[in-house]
Amino acid sequence: MKKHLSKFYLALIMLFFYAPIVYVIVFSFNDARSLTTFTGFSLRWYEKMFKSRSIMSSVYYTVIIAVIATAVSTVVGTVAAIGLSKSNKLLKEVVTQVNNLPMLNPEIVTAIGLMLFFTSLNIETGFTTLLLAHIAFCIPYVMLSVMPRLRMLDDNIAEAALDLGCTPVQALTKVIIPQIKTGIFSGALIAFTMSFDDFVISYFTTGPGINNISTYVYSSVKRINPSVNALSTIIILIITLVLIIANVVPLIKARKVKKNEEVY
Q1: Could you report the per-residue pLDDT of 190-242, keeping only the tens digit for each?
Q2: Taking the model in full, what pTM does it have?
Q3: Do 186 and 83 lie in a common domain?
Q4: 196 Cβ contact list (under 8 Å, min separation 6)
Q5: Dist. CA 50–CA 13, nearest whole Å
């Protein structure tokens, strides 16, 4: 009985999570404007989406801000984590606690804080403020991903590289970074996801004419716009493909390595 109840409970959870996604995908192909009655298959909302300047503009700003914020936060966060790993215990604890604040704070608090900060400096909100805000909240996630990998790193390896003639930059790029690259990659992936998905901070730090996907969708909530369903379906498709590739490629590589080992 317990086994059947657990399966039923799991099925309900899966339905709760995935039913809205399936609903969005199905009605993105609806011929009518209705979001409740499916009248026939059509691609008209996809065509309208690609012709809509406002939607394409929001996609552009979302992608460009996510890419730049990820690149900057990954470099800054990685360098900061490496520097912090060489610091004394007190400084490390203080900086770690400060680094955790943006993640522990409600997003609304961070958003209002950044908005007031830009306002107090008389900085006009727009693309620059939105980008700076995204970089600011992405850096802690990168540091949090990189620091555990650095704790596992043997300090003697970097020192040995220096003793063998490497410059500090060479020791960093050829010894330290290759050993923590998985942490850097996961941090960059989290940063990109957080930036791409963010709404609250974006809403408070953006300016007129600058919308990412989340703020555009929010502005379209009060009117029926099936083109948003088409946009959401494309995003879901891209994410699904990326996840499949990310999981399949390592398996293929592992099988090749295993076959080579069996040959030799």
Answers
A1: 899 889 888 999 999 998 888 888 888 888 777 777 888 888 888 888 888 87
A2: 0.83
A3: yes
A4: 62, 63, 66, 213
A5: 34
